[in-house]
Amino acid sequence: MGKVLNSQQVGFYKENGYLIAEDIFDSAWLDETLDAFNLSFAQQLERRKLPVATGERLAALHDNMAGLLQADVQLYLATLRMCSKLYGVYQLMTAPRLRGAVEDLGVSTPLFQTTPVLHLMARRLVIPGGYQGFDVHQDWTSVQGSLDTVTTWIPFMDVDANLYTMEVVPGSHLNGLLSGVQEPNIYRVDEKHYSEEQFVPVQVRKSGVCLMSNFTVHRSSRRGDERMRISVSGRYENASEPTFVEREYPFTQLKSLHRGFITENFPAEGQVRKVFQGQ
């Protein structure tokens, strides 16, 4: 018996390359983070003197995101990027029960090479000229760290078959790295390695998580209604996996720092004093 997962669950993961684990997070954490998302979009709408939706949590957030997208695409994207860096997102990624579940799958010395990634699917929130979701791919090339790296996919609401599920090909991880094409956002797997009938939809309830091998073939489903699906994903890599140690800890993710001033003539002395002295 593991800390969080039982032997049957661990066996299922090893055989299929993915696992749905329920009751990993406190639902209140998810709601608090959604509220922080909504606050972020509402602040920008108020700044632009645009209407701010209130009421039921998800409906208000959906309306406010749509309102900002319609008003300013670049501001919408900037707000969305900021939301992926909020404390609540990191709280989910480091939740004790998630840490325990990943350890049960063999990740004994976890590390985070990547920052969490926010995933959004909704018909009202398609960026003009853009896209939503990912085609068939493997995650391996995005990190190339430990062979036992676990992708964690955490939804903020119940994800049913008609809410843009993730779709996986069970057992595909055992074939290792497949031939394909490296594209800007994904490593697209060659079609000869899968067939349409092999894909299985991943339905996860709120407070649950889908744990998945970096070698599991998967994609985003385009099947969905008028609702919005928000999820966050991250990578639990293992600093003690033998091939990672032997390869001297390679990382694909590199940090860069903007050394110059982003906003000219900012901040003024008075703005700093106001923070500390309330002037």
Explain how this protein is built.
Strands 1, 2, 3, 5, 10 and 12 form a six-stranded antiparallel beta sheet that branches. A three-stranded antiparallel beta sheet has the order 4-8-7, with no helix packed on it. It folds into two domains: 187 residues, Jelly Rolls (Sandwich), CATH 2.60.120; 62 residues, no CATH class. With 279 residues, it is of the alpha+beta class. The protein starts with 6 loop residues before the first helix and ends with a helix. Helix 2 packs antiparallel against helix 4, helix 2 runs antiparallel to helix 5 and helix 3 crosses helix 4. It contains eight helices and twelve strands. Helices cover 31% and strands 18% of the residues. The model has no long low-confidence stretch (mean pLDDT 93).
